[in-house]
Known about the structure:
The chain starts with 5 loop residues before the first strand and ends in a 10-residue tail after the last helix. The chain is 27% helix and 30% strand. Strands 9, 10, 11, 12, 13, 14, 15, 16, 17 and 18 form a ten-stranded mixed sheet that branches. Strands 1-4-5-3-2-6-7-8 form an eight-stranded mixed sheet, with helices on both faces. The longest helix is centred in the N-terminal third of the chain and has 15 residues, at 17-31. The protein is built from ten helices and 18 strands. Strand 12 (287-289) and strand 13 form a beta hairpin.
Amino acid sequence: MEATVNEFTRWTALADVESVVHELWSRVNESRPWADKGASLALRQLNLIVLARGGRQAKRASSVLEALAAAFPARAVVMAEQMPGDRVEEPRELLHEAHPLARVTVRCGAPGTVGPPICWEEMVVPVRREDASLLQSYAEPLLLGDLPVVLWVPQEPDCSAQDFRRLADMADRVVLDSAAFDAPIRGLRLVADLVREMAGHRTVGDLSWARLTPWRELVADVFEDPARRDMLDRVETLTVGYGSEVVDSELAAGGEEHLSPAVARALLFCSWMASRLGWVLGGRGWHKEGDVSVLEMRRAGVKMTPGSTILFRLHPHRCLPGEFGGLETVTLEVAGKTSGTPGAVITIKRTPDSGVCSSRLRYEGREVDIRTIDMPLPTEEALLAEELSYVGSDTVFEESLAVAAQLSGLPGSEGLVI
């Protein structure tokens, strides 16, 4: 999205938001510097509610919404829970108004080469913790009734709290980020519980799933060649190397930068493979081989024989703050077609310094380069855009998450940390 070139803001009481919105749109069109391009476009695809913790997180959410405006213009309602130290500079002339107030903003990006700019609306409502039971009544009048509603919670939600529950009840889709949870492995189970609870009423997305998209695509590319597809039936070991990831300070409740283990995404990736290929639990639980967490799986419908098992190996790598910390390598070890014949090794590796990710096959004494792509660190707006693109349920995600939740609760899972 181009930088904002026009912006009008006004504080108002919640009851007057709609009239202020109309006033601001009029001011935008009266003062537009793009008169030769025609009237600005007030496009709205959805209502996007953001439940933000603190003023800094609300500000971050606003920057994400601005970056998304061209692809997903929305009426954005940011419920900004005030934290100690937050300063809300409400105009003095409104101090007598019933609280909370709303800061209403209409922003426009730069005009396109052949048309006017796209503009969007944002309402920020600073709220107190004691207002939790009232958030639904605050947000509901601000929404456009004919558009779908998405609730985005950038931080770990309290899934039993009234503020989250009541806003989720209004939504068609709830988007979370299990990587921002204090305990990401537990986060997978919490998200899986929400998926089950909300089934048939609303869908649930997780930005951690979007972070795995390029990895899943690279694995799928390997087996696009029909000559390689039978290797899927002969996989013996799946090893995922992962590191630590710096979670942005705006996501942390206290504003402090901290490391979030990427082990949850490594487990979710393995669970995706299991759900697609019919692998089920074979052993009793996780065990350690040095720093590596190991779990035995088996092919569904096949008795436990030496050729029927698959080992999951989650291999941590300690990263310094600022280094890439998601998945680093995925290695598939494949048995030969018959006993005594050589197998194959498929490796997908991301180079942290360059962000280049390549897939390679070693087979019959040869090494074949399959694909090389740039895999930069994903931005939060790119991840959110992917989740907003889903209209209905993402059944592949839901099935993968259910497997991950099961595996994360097995004996030995407490060792799934860096």
